[in-house]
Automatic annotation (TrEMBL):
<feature type="binding site">
    <location>
        <position position="189"/>
    </location>
    <ligand>
        <name>pyridoxal 5'-phosphate</name>
    </ligand>
</feature>
<feature type="modified residue" description="N6-(pyridoxal phosphate)lysine">
    <location>
        <position position="190"/>
    </location>
</feature>
<comment type="pathway">
    <text>Cofactor biosynthesis; pyridoxine 5'-phosphate biosynthesis; pyridoxine 5'-phosphate from D-erythrose 4-phosphate: step 3/5.</text>
</comment>
<feature type="binding site">
    <location>
        <begin position="75"/>
        <end position="76"/>
    </location>
    <ligand>
        <name>pyridoxal 5'-phosphate</name>
    </ligand>
</feature>
<dbReference type="InterPro" id="IPR022278">
    <property type="entry name" value="Pser_aminoTfrase"/>
</dbReference>
<keyword id="KW-0718">Serine biosynthesis</keyword>
<comment type="similarity">
    <text>Belongs to the class-V pyridoxal-phosphate-dependent aminotransferase family. SerC subfamily.</text>
</comment>
<comment type="pathway">
    <text>Amino-acid biosynthesis; L-serine biosynthesis; L-serine from 3-phospho-D-glycerate: step 2/3.</text>
</comment>
<feature type="domain" description="Aminotransferase class V">
    <location>
        <begin position="4"/>
        <end position="343"/>
    </location>
</feature>
<comment type="subunit">
    <text>Homodimer.</text>
</comment>
<keyword id="KW-0663">Pyridoxal phosphate</keyword>
<dbReference type="InterPro" id="IPR015422">
    <property type="entry name" value="PyrdxlP-dep_Trfase_small"/>
</dbReference>
<dbReference type="Pfam" id="PF00266">
    <property type="entry name" value="Aminotran_5"/>
</dbReference>
<dbReference type="InterPro" id="IPR015421">
    <property type="entry name" value="PyrdxlP-dep_Trfase_major"/>
</dbReference>
<keyword id="KW-0028">Amino-acid biosynthesis</keyword>
<feature type="binding site">
    <location>
        <position position="147"/>
    </location>
    <ligand>
        <name>pyridoxal 5'-phosphate</name>
    </ligand>
</feature>
<protein>
    <recommendedName>
        <fullName>Phosphoserine aminotransferase</fullName>
        <ecNumber>2.6.1.52</ecNumber>
    </recommendedName>
</protein>
Length: 355
């Protein structure tokens, strides 16, 4: 029996994507060789990379200034690549969660960083808002969805300063203006595909102004010039991401999936708010559609029972992040409504039988 996988990342992918990826590993397009054996310089793989770039552009409705890259090193490498490629005198960062603070730590190794807003004092339970972006900043770095704490930006800042966004855990989950960003990046393993590839969208017109002589791999312009094939790309991760983008296209793209994601999140948050045994963690207006974090009010009394009931219902991966505790249900694009309903039913059952 396939489990309902609420893990934060690597995370659930559509059943059909897993099937197609598995088949391609066994025998790619009936060619008698595996996907992971084909040359990245072959016509077959170039077609995969071209479609993966074009389909991502189409789904995000990107203009001609923006280009899609598939890189390695995870979102974590982008914490360094962004300042290497954009930072001249100073950059502004919003500290909205643990990944935002990791991005700050890395950028501080490269240049001057100003933390212009933070919700750290309140354990990152809300998204900092109403901050002023210094007019002399080279860019503003924000995190659209805070995977660990379950908060998500609903309204993006309005500023003339180029915006860089870590979108690892909510990219392509909703219909936003993706052209608003100078750079956005996402490790694939949350909402795009398997670990091993990172999607980066860059506004080409903003590059090449720092005067730094960068190591080639760290230079976006090197990757742009080689269509993400400056070195051997992670062929399996790119192909599986493409399969997932095709799936997303069939769901109606960001518009179509946003409706479903809202429906799932509403179902779960309504139960957290209604059920006297549970409580939410974050400020309501900033609640994430992707990572739903909640606590049991009486862990001593209910934790062992609830955990067992989840297990019996084929639910896995609902444990909270190690520093937060409680529960975190990650309900990315590929989690069906049915999975969320199963979790809600278990919460109702706990109330009925153990209140
Ligand atoms: C998971 C995550 C990261 C780290 O991604 P890696 O690919 O493991 O480097 C960074 N930012 C956010 C928002 C994340 O959710």
């Amino acid at each position: 029996m396939k489990k309902y996988n609420f893990s934060a990342g690597p995370s659930t992918l559509p059943e059909e994507v897993i099937q197609q990826a598995s088949q391609a590993v066994l025998d790619f397009n009936n060619k008698g060789i595996s996907l992971i054996e084909i040359s990245h310089r072959s016509k077959d793989f170039i077609a995969i990379m071209d479609e993966a770039r074009a389909l991502a552009k189409k789904l995000m409705k990107l203009d001609d200034n923006h280009e899609v890259l598939y890189l390695q090193g995870g979102a974590s490498l982008q914490f360094s690549m962004v300042p290497y490629n954009l930072l001249k005198s100073k950059a502004a960062y919003v500290d909205s969660g643990n990944f935002a603070s990791m991005a700050i730590k890395e950028a501080e190794k490269i240049g001057k960083i100003e933390i212009i807003a933070s919700s750290k004092q309140d354990k990152y339970t809300y998204i900092p808002k109403d901050y002023a972006v210094p007019s002399d900043a080279d860019y503003l770095h924000i995190t659209s969805n805070n995977t660990v704490y379950g908060t998500e930006i609903k309204t993006f800042p309005n500023t003339n300063i180029p915006i860089v966004c870590d979108m690892s855990s909510d990219i392509l989950s909703r219909n936003i203006n993706y052209n608003k960003f100078a750079i956005l990046y996402a490790g694939a393993q949350k909402n795009l595909g398997p670990a091993g590839v990172t999607m980066v969208v860059v506004d080409k017109t903003l590059l090449g102004t720092t005067g730094r002589n960068l190591p080639s791999y760290l230079d976006y312009e090197v990757h742009l010039a080689k269509d993400s094939m400056a070195n051997t790309p992670p062929v399996f991760a790119v192909y599986t991401t493409l399969l997932n983008l095709r799936w997303l296209d069939k769901q109606g793209g960001p518009e179509g999936i946003e409706k479903k994601n809202k429906e799932k999140a509403e179902l779960l948050y309504n139960e957290i708010d209604r059920n006297p045994l549970f409580r939410g963690i974050c400020v309501k207006e900033d609640r994430s559609l992707m990572n739903v974090c909640f606590f049991l009010n009486d862990e001593e009394k209910h934790k062992a029972i609830f955990d067992q009931m989840c297990k019996d219902a084929n639910i896995v991966g609902v444990g909270g992040y190690r520093t937060v505790g409680g529960y975190r249900a990650s309900i990315y694009n590929a989690m069906p409504l049915e999975g969320v309903q199963v979790l809600v039913n278990v919460m109702k059952e706990l109330e009925k039988t153990h209140n």
